[in-house]
Amino acid sequence: MSKLHASDSTSTLTDRYVAEVVRRIPAEQRGDVADELRATIADTVEARGPADPEAAEREVLTEMGDPIRLAARYADRPLALIGPGLYPTYVRLLTVLLSTVLPVVTAVTMALDVLDGQEVGEVIAGAVAVVLSTGAQMIAWLTVVFALIERAGAVGGTWTPDNLPDRRVPKKRGAAAYAAVAWHALLIALIVWQHTAQPYRTDGGIRLDVLDPRLWSGWIWPILAGLVGLVTLDAIRAVRVWTRSLAALSAVAEAAFALPLAWVLYRQELFNPAFLSDINGGWQTPDSFYTVAVVGVLAVGAGEVLKRLHEARD
Q1: Helix%, strand%, coil% for the chain, nearest 5
Q2: Closest-CA residue to 237 (of 310, 157, 140)
Q3: 67 Cβ partners below 8 Å, 6+ apart?
Q4: Beta strands 200-201; 207-208: pairing state
Q5: Where are the beta strands (DSSP E) in 155-216?
Q6: Strand pairing partners for 160?
Q7: What is the pLDDT of residues 240-277, one digit of tens each?
Q8: Considering only Cβ atoms within 10 Å of each terminal Cβ, which end of the chain, N or C, has fewer?
Q9: What is the pLDDT of residues 81-101, one digit of tens each?
Q10: 211 forms bridges with which residues in the sheet?
């Protein structure tokens, strides 16, 4: 009777462990993994020939470790938010953003506050608020981007000797890629900041967006998505050999950014009409300005795509 009780207890412990593992892996793997785990546990316990099977079972399960970690290995999912393969790049890029983009945004905010005639205390308080809010957003969004890359395996994937680069990433290209990351991140920060802070103030004290607020109901989102894609891919470009597939993804991101931007410029819908009316007075922005801007955006975008494709062939 006592022997049966011990066996039932041991079986229950095994079932509980196996259940904790298989519920965290894809459904199509669960049956095979459950059978494999039960067989491994039973064989290991039997090989030790213990006088107390329940104690041996507990010892074996302890050696196998946390079922969450074991499930992660079976499902090939990282447990870390940002793994060791990406962490150095993440820290390096975060340092670049906080040391270049954040000071520029802060300086622009302080300059606008001074031009608005605010007191020294108000200028300093506004600068502190910008540092905290913009810095927090930079850290949060960069972390999200790198966590998504980690989960998707976009940088690594399954390693084979074919992944070995022929040579190191050229220092010149790495520096250019970091500069591109800083520039595109600055654009993201300025777009979001001008919408949330409404930095322009009319003579009547009314705060306005610089860009047309109606863009947030449509075209601003593909523009921001393209910029986020460019930041991510330029970060990869700074530390890895640039492949054709990455260059193709970069072309998609460039198109997502440049084409909607060119379209809203062509339709003269980029800037807030109230902002233009107040800053221009009675002067009307000529159509030629928008034509030149559209051509410039498309030319620069095409040039960037060609440059990245050329780098992939080198």
Answers
A1: 75, 0, 20
A2: 310
A3: 17, 20, 21, 24
A4: antiparallel
A5: 200-201, 207-208
A6: none
A7: 667 788 888 889 999 999 999 999 999 998 999 888 88
A8: N
A9: 777 667 777 887 788 778 877
A10: 271
